[in-house]
Amino acid sequence: MISIKLARHGLKNTPFYHIVVLQSRSRPTRKPIEQLGTFNPIPNKDGSKDITLNFERAKYWIGVGAKPSESVARILAKADIIPPRPRPGMPNPSPSTPIKAPTTPSA
């Protein structure tokens, strides 16, 4: 079974994560099948957190049956790749600020 997880990198007290595809029983520190993007949980000066994600490859891996971890599922739900998971005690999932796909400048 294949899963999509966060692999922690960075230094002590400054985490940085790679969004990776790997076998579900292997540790996230092992060599991944593919790296889909990065996630920096430390906010910038403007208060936003940096996320880079390859939308096409993420959709492909979800399509072939890869199971995202809970934290990756929240990131993919914000990117509108998968529907948000229902939260306990909440009647409907609340709409959140979606992640916008990068736009290519037209000539």
Automatic annotation (TrEMBL):
Keyword list, A-Z: Ribonucleoprotein, Ribosomal protein
Region (Disordered): 80-107
A GO CC annotation given for this chain: mitochondrial small ribosomal subunit
Keyword Ribosomal protein: yes
Record's keyword annotation contains Ribosomal protein: yes
Superkingdom assignment: Eukaryota
Gene3D superfamilies reported for this sequence: 3.30.1320.10
Biological process, per Gene Ontology: mitochondrial translation
Classification via InterPro entries: Ribosomal_bS16, Ribosomal_bS16_dom_sf
Pfam family of the protein (one): Ribosomal_S16
Sample GO molecular function, one term: structural constituent of ribosome
Bias type Pro residues, positions: 83-96
Database matches in PANTHER family: 30S RIBOSOMAL PROTEIN S16, SMALL RIBOSOMAL SUBUNIT PROTEIN BS16M
Similarity annotation: Belongs to the bacterial ribosomal protein bS16 family.
The protein's name: 37S ribosomal protein S16, mitochondrial
Designated gene of the protein: MRPS16
